[in-house]
Amino acid sequence: LQSAGEGHSPVRTPYPVIVTISNEYGSGALEIAARVAAELGYEYVDRQLPVVVAKRLRVRPEAVEANEDAEPTLGERFLSVLERATPELAVASAGEPFDEELLRAVKDAVRDYAARGNVVIVGRGASAILGARADTIRIFMYAPREWRVLRVTQTMQTPRHVAEGEVDRVDRARTTYLKDWYGLTFGDPRNYDLCIDTSRLPSNACTQLIVATVRARQA
């Protein structure tokens, strides 16, 4: 609480909140997350995190993102660490760090950003890393597969069969990632505080729903 001066009631200062955004690929979560951060005046963490991790591991940021949302092959068990809304198609080189080291670096980076408070963290498994903390609101955004395929086709100007392949590939990869490394089921509502079907509401309504949830938590 902050004092409002003699003769006045104390003014409550909202305590810092961390918002984590998990999503199905093609659900439009990035646009919504950015709007939420802007409206709340929060730091928006998306592409900064791979740079932080790369510096800690002394590798290129591209190496950190290389296997994001990629299904691991039988012979290579590099971690699909950065649960992002846009899949990265680069191929990791043989000299990059293995699963446990990369996972540990991502966890440390997510926790460092969370320690600052007033932040929106997109993907990265942040909801699993931070868990059900009092200062954290875990959001999951999803939509029917057909709606997401159509949206990817239109926004990325890509053929339908390519969009279908990417939607299915990323869904499988995120499911595997959360199951293998955190023992969680991707999209299970019990792992989130608020789940939103983005096909049922315009993006501005989704934004306001999340903002209202944050402010209610701070009240």
Task: Annotate the secondary structure layout.
Elements: E1 18-23, H1 29-40, E2 43-45, H2 48-57, H3 61-65, H4 99-116, E3 119-122, H5 126-130, E4 136-142, H6 145-156, H7 160-182, E5 194-197, H8 203-218
Parallel strand pairs: 1-3, 1-4, 2-3, 4-5
Structural class: alpha/beta
The proportion of residues in beta strands is 5-15%
**Structure summary, number of beta strands:** 5
Mean pLDDT, all residues = 77
| Helix percentage range | 40-55%
**Counting H and I runs of at least 4 residues, what is the number of helices?**
8
The ordered string of helix (H) and strand (E) elements is EHEHHHEHEHHEH
Unreliable stretches, pLDDT < 50, 5 or more residues?
A: 70-98
Question: Could you tell me how far the N terminus lies from the C terminus, measured between alpha carbons in angstroms?
Answer: 12 Å
User: Given the C-alpha coordinates, what overall shape results?
Assistant: globular
- Biggest sheet architecture: 5 strands, parallel
How would you write the strand order of the largest sheet?
2-3-1-4-5
Radius of gyration of CA atoms, rounded to a whole number: 18 Å
